[in-house]
Amino acid sequence: MIYTVTLNPALDYFMNYEELALGEVNRTGKTQISAGGKGIMESRMLSLIGAKSKALGFLGGFSGQYIKDFLNENQIDSDFTEIEDLTRINVKLKSQENETSFDAAGPKLQESEINHFLEKFDHLKEDDIVVFAGTIPKSLGEDFYERLIAKVQKQKATFVMDVDGQKLLDSLPAHPLLIKPNREELEAIFETSFKNNEQIIPYGQKLLEMGAQNVIVSMAGDGALLFTNEKVYFAQGIKGELKNSIGAGDSTVAGFLAEYSQSKDPLLAFRQAIACGTSKAFSDDMPSRAFLEEIYKKVNISEVK
Amino acid sequence: MIYTVTLNPALDYFMNYEELALGEVNRTGKTQISAGGKGIMESRMLSLIGAKSKALGFLGGFSGQYIKDFLNENQIDSDFTEIEDLTRINVKLKSQENETSFDAAGPKLQESEINHFLEKFDHLKEDDIVVFAGTIPKSLGEDFYERLIAKVQKQKATFVMDVDGQKLLDSLPAHPLLIKPNREELEAIFETSFKNNEQIIPYGQKLLEMGAQNVIVSMAGDGALLFTNEKVYFAQGIKGELKNSIGAGDSTVAGFLAEYSQSKDPLLAFRQAIACGTSKAFSDDMPSRAFLEEIYKKVNISEVK
C-alpha cells in the first residue's frame, strides 16, 4: 500500500478580482474551493492512474469535513486523524496581473490526537511506501518527520520525501526511495546556480551519495533529470499550454510511485512521473485519463551518463 | 414574533497579516471565522436581550452549515431555506494600517428554493415584525424586497427596513415601522452634507413624511436622533473605546425592536437601541449582559423638537 501523509492540509479558497484596492471593500468575481495539500494531490493522482493509496494526516472542523467529503466523493481512500481545531483555510487572490497567497497557520494539535496519528505507523508492512509531503504544523515540532521516518524504518517499510530545504537533507541518511527537488530548490540547497543541465548532474549525484535511492530534478518546461544508482536520464520538456502548475510536482511523485510500486523499474517509473506531472500542469484541475495517456506517448527519455 | 431576514448571509473569514506583498505568498497570523449577515447579527442581539426571534434567509453547503451550527449552539432560533449552492465566504484582511474586504458574490438560487422561502411569508400574523437587512443575491432580482413587503402587507404584519440608498426610499410608501440610516447614508440619499445636528432634522422629518413610522439617524460617536410622528429626540454619544463597529447598527435596530415589540413605546425603544448599539461597538464580539446594562444606565436622551 502507498500512504500519502499531509500533516498540514488546507482548504484553498480562490478569489478572482478585477481590481484590488487595499483598505477598501472589493467585490470579488468567481470564487472556487479546493482540497489542498501535497499528499492529498498525490493521492488524487494515484487514484486517477488506478494505484491504491491511503491519505493520512490531520483534519478538523467544517473545513476538514469539506476535504473528507471531497475525498469520499472522489473514491480516494483516506484515514485522517480527526482533530478538534479547524483545518486551515488559505486564500488565493487571482488577477490578470498576479497571484497573492494568504497562507494561514496550521491547527493546534493535542497530544492525544498526535498519538492517535502515530499509532497508524505501528501497522506498516515491509512492502508499504509512505510519502511525506509538505509543511509541518508548528505544534508538531520541526523534528516530526524524523520521528516518522524512524517509525517507517522500524517497520522495514519504504519512504519518499517530498519536502524542501534542510528537512530534505536531514532525511537522506535514512535512504528515501525518491526525492524530487526542482532546479531552484537544488540551487538553494547547495547555494549555487545552474546555467545548464550539465551543471546539475554532479549535484544530483551528490544527493545519491548522501543517501537518496532515486532523485528527480524537475526543471519545469525544460524537462527533468532522473538519477539512479546506475545511470542518469533526461526527459525532454513537452510542449503545451501551462494551465495550472499547482500539484504538478506532486503528480510527478505520484506517477513515479504508481509505476515503481508495481514494476520496481525506476526508468519506467520516471516515464509515468513525467506524464503525470506534465498532464497535470496542462490541465486546470486533474487531467483526464485520455489526456494523460496522450502525454505519456510524447515522453522522450535519453540516457545522459 | 420578530423575524430577521438575511437574503445573502456570509461566512466572514478574518485574516490578520503583519505585512502584505501582492503577488507573493504571505504567511498569515491569527485567523477567525464568524457568521456574518445583518439579520443574523440582529437575531444574535435580540437573543442576548431575551427577545424571541427567528432568522430567515438562504443557507447552503459547508459554509451555510457552519452558520446553522453556530446559530444552534447559541440557541438562536432560525428557519433558513436550504439551498444547493454554497453560502458565500467573505475574506477580511486586517493589518495595523487598514482593513481590506473581499466580498464574494451571492449564491445561485433555484426557483424551487425561492418559492420555498416565499411560502414562509404566507404564515405571518398581524403582530409579527419582519426585519429586512442587507444586500440581495443577484439571482433574486433587485425588486425582491418589494415582493416581500407586499407579502408582509397582505398579512397585515409590520416590517423594518435596514438597507441603504434607493431600496430604502422605495420602501417608504409601505410605512416601515423603523428605518435607521446613518449620517453618511442620509447625506447620500439627499445629496447634501451636514455640518451639525440641526441640519439633519428637516431630512429626518422628510423621511417621516415619505412614510416611515420611526426614523433613527445614527451619528457614530456623536450620538443619534430619533424621529417619531410627535417628537424628535437626541441621544448623546457615550464615551468608551471603540472595539468593533461591525454589527453596531444591526444591534441598534435589534434593541429598538426588542423593546418596541413589548411596550410599543418608541422612546423606551430608542433607549434600548442606543444601549445595544453602543455596547456592541465597545465589544470585540457580542457584549455581555452586564456590560449592556451598564451602558444602558449611561444613555442620556433629550427632547429636541
Automatic annotation (TrEMBL), chains A, B:
**Keyword Kinase among record annotations:** yes
- Tell me the pathway: Carbohydrate metabolism; D-tagatose 6-phosphate degradation; D-glyceraldehyde 3-phosphate and glycerone phosphate from D-tagatose 6-phosphate: step 1/2
Residues spanning the membrane: none
Q: Which GO terms describe its cellular component?
A: cytosol
Q: Which reaction does it catalyse?
A: beta-D-fructose 1-phosphate + ATP = beta-D-fructose 1,6-bisphosphate + ADP + H(+); D-tagatofuranose 6-phosphate + ATP = D-tagatofuranose 1,6-bisphosphate + ADP + H(+)
Stated family: Belongs to the carbohydrate kinase pfkB family. Belongs to the carbohydrate kinase PfkB family. LacC subfamily.
Protein name per UniProt? Tagatose-6-phosphate kinase
Per the UniProt record, the source organism is Lactococcus lactis subsp. lactis (Streptococcus lactis)
